[in-house]
C-alpha cells in the first residue's frame, strides 16, 4: 500500500504551522499521510466518516466534550484556532483540533458563538441548525514529540492518528472550514 500524496486543501498547512510553532526551535515531527485502511481499527472508526468530530467523540467517550482554546487569530475573514477537546466529566484529552473557519460563511448566531470560544465548532453548527458534512482529504500518523505529548497527555514517541478534512454546509455546499483533527489515543474509562 502506497501512502497518498499530501492532501491539497488548506488543512496540512494548519498542521505544519502548528508543529513548527510547538517545536521550540527543533525540527518539527513529520506526518505520514495514509489512506483510511492504513489506520488502526479504533482511529479508523473515529476518523473515516463524513460527519463532525465533536458528535463522534461524544458518542465514543459517552460524555460531552469540553473546549479549551490554545491559540486563536483572525486574519482576512478567517479565524484560525488550535483547540483541545476533553471529556467534560473526566477531563481526559480526546482530540487536538486545528481549524481555519471562514467567518463569512457562518450564520450570525454561529459567528457570535465561535467568537465566544466556549463550544466546539461542530456543536455550534448543530445548535444553530447548520447541517454540515466533513469531507476527509487524508489521514495521518505522526510520532508525538514532547510538546504534543504534553497537550494530549501521551508519552513522547507515542503514535498519534488524525485526519485533514473540509467542512461544507449541506444546504448549499459552501465551504465552512478546513481542519486537522488529531486523536489523543486515550480510551473512555
TL;DR of this structure?
This protein has helices spanning 11-22, 41-47, 53-61, 108-116, 121-127, 146-152; strands at 32-34, 65-75, 78-87, 93-102, 132-143, 159-169, 175-183.
Describe the structure.
The chain has a seven-stranded antiparallel beta sheet with strand order 1-5-6-7-4-3-2. A hairpin with a 2-residue loop joins strand 2 (65-75) and strand 3 (78-87). With 189 residues, it is of the alpha+beta class. The protein has helices spanning 11-22, 41-47, 53-61, 108-116, 121-127, 146-152, and strands spanning 32-34, 65-75, 78-87, 93-102, 132-143, 159-169, 175-183.
- Per DSSP, the total helix count is 6
For the residues shown, what is the average pLDDT? 90
Helix-strand sequence = HEHHEEEHHEHEE
In whole angstroms, the N-to-C terminal distance is: 34 Å
Largest sheet: 7 strands, antiparallel
Which ranges are low-confidence, i.e. pLDDT below 50, for 5 or more consecutive residues?
1-5
Q: Could you state the CATH homologous superfamily? A: Chorismate lyase-like
* Count of discrete structural domains: 1
Amino acid at each position: 500500500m502506497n501512502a497518498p500524496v499530501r492532501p491539497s486543501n488548506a488543512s496540512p498547512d494548519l498542521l505544519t504551522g502548528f508543529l513548527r510553532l510547538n517545536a521550540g526551535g527543533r525540527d518539527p515531527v513529520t506526518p505520514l499521510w495514509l489512506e483510511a485502511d492504513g489506520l488502526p481499527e479504533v482511529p479508523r472508526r473515529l476518523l473515516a466518516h463524513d460527519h463532525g468530530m465533536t458528535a463522534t467523540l461524544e458518542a465514543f467517550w459517552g460524555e460531552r466534550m469540553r473546549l479549551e482554546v490554545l491559540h486563536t487569530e483572525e486574519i482576512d475573514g478567517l479565524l484560525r484556532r488550535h483547540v483541545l477537546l476533553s471529556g467534560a466529566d473526566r477531563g481526559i484529552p480526546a482530540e487536538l483540533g486545528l481549524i481555519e473557519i471562514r467567518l463569512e460563511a457562518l450564520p450570525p448566531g454561529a459567528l457570535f458563538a465561535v467568537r465566544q470560544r466556549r463550544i466546539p465548532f461542530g456543536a455550534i453548527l448543530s445548535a444553530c441548525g447548520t447541517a454540515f458534512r466533513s469531507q476527509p482529504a487524508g489521514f495521518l500518523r505522526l510520532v508525538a514529540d514532547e510538546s504534543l505529548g504534553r497537550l494530549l497527555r501521551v508519552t513522547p514517541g507515542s503514535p498519534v492518528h488524525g485526519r485533514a478534512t473540509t467542512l461544507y454546509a449541506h444546504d448549499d455546499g459552501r465551504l465552512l472550514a478546513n481542519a486537522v483533527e488529531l486523536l489523543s489515543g486515550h480510551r473512555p474509562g
